[in-house]
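Second attempt. The first submission of Diguanylate cyclase (GGDEF)-like protein/PAS domain S-box-containing protein had a stray character pasted in from the spreadsheet, which I only caught after the job came back as garbage. Lesson logged: always re-copy from the clean sequence file. Corrected sequence (1063 aa) follows.
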Amino acid sequence: MCPEPLLTALVQTVEALDGVVAARLFVTGEGGTFALAAAQSGPSGRGAVAAPLGLCRRAAAQLAGQSPPPHLFSAHTLDVRELAPGAVQASLGTVHRQAQAYLAVPVVGPAVRGTLHLDLAAAAPGLVVGTQDGVDAPAPLLAQARAGAALLAATLRQLDLDRALNAAQCEVALLERAWRAVTQSGSRAELFGAITQAVHELLRTEHVAVGLLEGDVVVLRESAGTGSWDTRHPIGAGVAGRVARSGLPALVPDVRLDPDYVAIHPGVVSEICVPLLDGERVVGVLDVECESRALGDQDLRPLAALGTWLGQALERERLHADTERQRRALDLLHRLRTSFGSSLDPAQSIQAVTRGLRETFGYSHVSVYLLRDRVMVLQDQVGYAAVIEQLPLDRGVMGRAGRTAQVQWVQDLSQEPDAMRAIDGITSEVCVPLLRDQQVVGALNVETVGDAEPLQQWDVHIIASVGAYLQQVLERAWLHAQVREREARYRMLAEYTNDLVCLHRPGGDFSYVSPSVQALLGYAPSELLGTSPTALMHPEDRPSLHEIGQSPGRPVLVRLRHQAGHYLCLEVSISRIESEELAQDTAPEALDGQDRPYQYLSSSRDVTARQEAEARLQWAATHDSLTRLFNRDRLYSALEEQMTLACQTGQPGYAVLYLDMDRFKVINDSLGHTAGDELLQAFAGRLNACMEGALVARLGGDEFAVLMCGLPPGDLSQVEAAAARLQACLTAPFTVQGRAVQVSVSMGIAPGELHHRAPADILRDADLSMYRAKRDPARPVMVFRPEMHVAALRQLQIEGDLPQAARRGQLRLVYQPIVDLQTGEIGGYEALLRWQHPQLGAVPPCEFVPLAEELEIITELGAFVLEEACRTFQMASSCGPEGAEGAAPPALQVNVSTRQFLRPGFARTVQRILVRTGFPAGRLHLEITESALIVDLDEAARTLTELRALGVRIHIDDFGTGHSSLAFLHRFPVDGLKVDRAFIARLGEDAVSAKLVETVLLLARTLDVDVIAEGIETRVQRDHLIRLGCRWGQGYLFSRPLEVADTLALLHASSGALAGPYD
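This time the job returned cleanly.
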């Protein structure tokens, strides 16, 4: 469908011209295709305006030229053979019925190529219809047509800009909407639904689905769009299966070309699938299929971010589930202990266990059996419609547990030939034997049924723990029964337990203390008889004694003093007991309203370890274990509090300092991870001490953040002063493993703003400013500015497009001549890489080369440059003579990065390129930096020797700026040195620079190697170099880097020299 602005512009063009029957606009599309973009009848024409094939082909032929001139064509000269068979008369009669001629006018502009075709009637002003094509059009008509073409070109450019802007806005809207879903969704289903719906609506894709990995199957959890999905998809098939197996995103622009594609929905033309990762483990996929267009990198980018967010959400959900299971386990054990401490009825305790396991963990089938006469007899169960009342010890999983006295865990009962199932459909089982005096006396059994998830390892731990407590309470009940049978006194109960069991008179004094008090608190039982418990209690806990008396049976935490002086945390439960057997030990006032004697029975259990473990868990949830600073979660919660306060007051009074330790990776790699951890701990200690009163957090790696609150709105003076303090504090040397280590710190400051809706917003701003500071060593502290976000988006686009730049044909080489400073004779060319980005234009090397190093693709780029340069120069050699007659062919200089040079097999790579291109090795000069040579002296010498054996010559680039030593230089087979432009720039102004250049030249003559001065821009510099005896040089004084065509022309020139300032 023609865009409305384009159709409007075409209408305006037609209405401005007299005698126009119809108008058509042809433009080039993606991949060089050619198509009719818009058509419109003129005021003088009637009928359809479809374009015959002949006109399309002529328009395409015109666009093939660099600057197509306007031409007037007679309608009678149209070659009807070019029209589609069977449509000749129809096309001519419909399109040209009133037209006597048509005018073709170019529509040309930046990124716009097209042709405006105007069908003209005989009444067009100044029109003289002939029989020949290509005649000049009348000037008035031509001027009006060109004005219309300019309007159309501007409209096309505006449409392109609008499309690009819409795509960017769509991506931002998608990420914002997805982030809200990630941060606000209350459930997994809600999150998946919001994400899939957002992708469906904003990326205009017909099919969106989220699937989670279960074993070797991807199970659909949520979808959006049209059609239906398979609910279970094996990972061995399809694009989603490939992503689930590899953990790598997949972009399939054309599903017909992907062998893994499995058609689920008809009409799909393109697919993107990204993995959802829990750490490094694939847990699901986000799959998008489109019927209306080919998906591309602009779609993959936000979808990859969504995949990362969904994976992190699933990871958080898993961690939360693990924590919740631990919490529920502790809660259940706590409740069971309470039940065991207040009840000595085995049936009641067994019932508490079976129902507690079902209610707390959702186990559907739980049963408890006790052993009687070598037969397991059912005591209680939940969930079974039909059960086996008695089980012999020689049968089934429970029988094996009874025989071995070991916990039995079977995940797949179908593989258990001796399994006894009371009902069909039981799939897995955990059976915990209950022991007394090392003998099996019963079993706690848990089973799953049907499609329920099989019991896992953590289920075994939980059930075994509960079984241990059940075993303890049963044993306690049995002991109590024995005591009641043998003796009439309750004190015998405590002889068989590790808990502290005491009897108290109504006033609280001890009347009986179990022997376990000796091991627990260090006192003999006799020392406490007749004393009050308050004498042992921590002063802060003494008011809880009244609470214990008011709520019998409910456990309360109390701290009791050990004989050694420290305090232990005990969980105390009290129950009132009434018995005639207490009468002899009961004072008259210890009678209830019915004259029945009573006392209190207290049961105390040492929970110090549990309390400490809970405190450690709480601390670990908010702190970094290595540095003991707060962690990212604690920082996020504090930022959320500040943002809420800012919204309430309308005045954000907080800021974030984002710190990154420079050179940490170098230190960590060179001294080892232990040293790196030691440095991080020392760094964190200083940082925390320097920022007392602020919230200091470690975000991960060598990145830290400081949250400063209570700041005057809009005033960053306190933050900037803190940054200055930190610079002074943190740049002082650290002592790591007995050696002094110096680090620098880059800092970014982001003030709180009302538009910050989430902690990630302000941390993103602080991070951007920190990275800007890292790139500018002169300014180690940077305050966030909005334009940094724009620069970050540019950096992100460059980072995403650079790996594909060579494949897309966006990289090219230019060549700067190396000349004889006295004669201008060209001795060689240095190959330099350039990147022409389709949207950003020319991206300077200083911007993308360091990024290539960081992305670890510099080796591939280096190989591309080397092979392209060798192929170009070899082609020049095969096409004719190079340079002046009798002169040596010019050399080709190619830069080699440190990473490329240090990669094993570099010399073999160079040899393969020389063989493929046929370029002579003797003309290839490789430029290697000093720093690359000194990383590994022996390996560097070996690689250089291999290159020299091939015939390749070696030059040391930027000589004098690195860390080389003259003691090592003689070890390398070097053919030349390149003096860095920093020294050349100061020649004639700085005597020190002249002396340094002179020293390099003297060294070169001593080693019998060439010297090339780079960056020569003035005659003064050239003349100074000539006086110092330097022969070769390059720079803008002689020539800027030349395009390939200009380089080839210069290579074939007869003089072999540049015209330049040699007078």
